[in-house]
């Protein structure tokens, strides 16, 4: 009896756990929630953060070359010395001596003039700033990647909805044509055309289901959590021209705020410091050193003694010839500076080009969305007119099927145009360096549970 009770308790706990998990994924996820989880779990952003922290440590390491260094050394030695056949006043005897020597010393050294160490420290500061800019760029990239993955799911759902609607309409049309054929009102060709259209629409639904299922997988990669449903985009989402609606103003903002440009600019400064450091290795170096030493020794010859010693010295080093290594390193640093400058020029031109293209794309997107909305109304009117013409015999079944296809295609194109507008807007803000979490939170406010997208689990047969 007790075993049965325990088994029932375990089964009950498992059932409760399963219900909790199902309840978690039964609620549609919001864009903001997914982004917050991606900030914690996205491996690409995590790697970028670790890279920045690693580069940041190069600054204190380079600073160490300018600061004092303190070294303590110690030693102890046990000595056994035996001298054989020693002649002393005509007598021969062996001589053996055992003693210990030990001591320690502390050395404090300070570079006084070492120009290459100073430039290496400045270079490390530039490299740290470059890494910080690259990390900021990765943070912006995560915002876009999360938004893009989310919108791709919505787009896949719209494609699936359009495919389902088209198949259902074709199926109804096929049933009507079959009834007309049965009473001799239409030819067999209409039935065959409708059947072919229904089979084609069924294939489209199957393909759209596969795309919709796969689109959810990107959220797993970003957040390490599976999702079965997300909120959809509300119809009230505004589609507006960029503000300011001036291309040159956006280009100027990109030149000033782009993290890609900032990173490449710091790369140029780092290469300049490296060149100065390489050239300064031809110069003399000056350093100061203070040493305190204490030693103790014993033995039959010196009767044992203790010695304390303090010394201060100034070191002056003049490099004369190092086999050509210093000159070659300076030339190498010069070429590396040229490389950094060219990369910066390329980054600058690319940012300007992308900013102009995205600005133009957004203006096109706004016009496209409005045109697509009018296209839905026109396609609906055309379908109504075609169906009326078919009923009175002025249009054939192929015309009806094509009109239906154009309507559902227009609906999908309207939805896709809105998603593309959002993507281009986020890309433009990323290009000028102004994309931040507030943008994704603002976008998330236009997501609604009234248009929940649920991951497809069944397949059309």
Domain count: the total is 2
- Report strand %: 15-25%
Helix amount, in percent? 55-70%
Helix-and-strand structural type: alpha+beta
Present the secondary structure layout:
Blueprint lengths: L1 H25 L4 H11 L1 H14 L1 H6 L5 E20 L2 E23 L1 H68 L5 H28 L1 H7 L5 E5 L13 H11 L1 H22 L4 E13 L7 E13 L7 H68 L4 H36 L4 H8 L2 E8 L7
Antiparallel strand pairs: 1-2, 2-4, 3-6, 4-5
Helix pairs in contact: 2-5, 3-5, 5-6, 5-9, 5-11, 8-10, 9-10, 10-11
Task: Describe this structure as you would to a colleague.
This protein is α+β, with helices and mostly antiparallel strands. It has helices at residues 2-26, 31-41, 43-56, 58-63, 115-182, 188-215, 217-223, 247-257, 259-280, 325-392, 397-432, 437-444; strands at 69-88, 91-113, 229-233, 285-297, 305-317, 447-454.
Brief sketch in words of this structure:
The chain has 461 residues and is of the alpha+beta class. 66% of the residues lie in helices and 18% in strands. The two termini are 48 Å apart.
Features:
single chain, about 450 residues, alpha+beta, Outer membrane efflux proteins (OEP), 2 domains, 4-stranded antiparallel β-sheet, two-stranded antiparallel sheet, about 20% strand, disordered N terminus
């Amino acid at each position: 009896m007790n075993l049965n009770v325990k088994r029932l308790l375990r089964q009950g706990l498992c059932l409760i756990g399963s219900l909790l998990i199902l309840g978690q994924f039964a609620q549609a996820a919001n864009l903001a929630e997914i982004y917050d989880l991606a900030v914690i779990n996205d491996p690409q952003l995590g790697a970028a953060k670790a890279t920045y922290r690693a580069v940041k440590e190069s600054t204190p390491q380079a600073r160490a070359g300018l600061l004092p260094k303190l070294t303590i050394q110690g030693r102890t030695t046990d000595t056994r010395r035996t001298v054989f056949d020693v002649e002393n006043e005509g007598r021969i005897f062996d001589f053996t001596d055992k003693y210990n020597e030990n001591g320690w010393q502390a050395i404090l050294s300070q570079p006084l003039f070492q120009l290459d160490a100073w430039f290496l420290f400045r270079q490390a500061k530039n490299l740290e700033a470059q890494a910080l800019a690259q990390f900021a760029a990765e943070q912006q990239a995560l915002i876009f990647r999360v938004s893009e993955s989310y919108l791709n799911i919505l787009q896949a759902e719209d494609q699936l909805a359009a495919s389902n609607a088209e198949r259902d309409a074709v199926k109804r049309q096929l049933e009507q044509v079959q009834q007309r054929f049965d009473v001799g009102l239409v030819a067999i060709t209409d039935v065959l055309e409708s059947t072919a259209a229904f089979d084609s629409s069924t294939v489209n639904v199957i393909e759209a289901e596969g795309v919709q299922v796969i689109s959810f997988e990107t959220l797993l990669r970003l957040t390490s959590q599976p999702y079965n449903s997300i909120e959809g985009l509300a119809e009230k989402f505004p589609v507006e021209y960029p503000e300011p609606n001036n291309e040159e103003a956006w280009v100027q903002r990109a030149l000033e705020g782009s993290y890609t440009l900032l990173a490449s600019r710091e790369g140029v400064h780092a290469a300049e410091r490296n060149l100065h450091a390489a050239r300064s290795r031809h110069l003399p170096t000056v350093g100061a050193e203070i040493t305190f030493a204490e030693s103790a020794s014993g033995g039959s010859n010196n009767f044992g003694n203790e010695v304390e010693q303090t010394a201060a010295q100034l070191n002056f080093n003049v490099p004369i010839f190092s086999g050509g290594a210093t000159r070659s390193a300076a030339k190498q640093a010069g070429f590396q500076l040229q490389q950094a400058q060219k990369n910066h020029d390329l980054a600058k031109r690319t940012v300007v080009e992308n900013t102009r293209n995205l600005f133009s794309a957004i203006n096109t997107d706004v016009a496209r969305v409005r045109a697509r909305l009018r296209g839905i109304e026109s396609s609906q009117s055309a379908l109504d007119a075609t169906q009326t013409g078919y009923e009175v015999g002025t249009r054939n079944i192929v015309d009806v099927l094509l009109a239906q296809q154009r309507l559902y295609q227009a609906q999908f194109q309207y939805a896709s145009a809105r998603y593309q507008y959002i993507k281009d807007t986020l890309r433009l803000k990323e290009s000028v360096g102004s994309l931040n979490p507030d943008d994704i939170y603002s976008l998330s406010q236009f997501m609604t549970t009234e248009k929940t997208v649920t991951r497809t689990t069944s397949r059309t047969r």
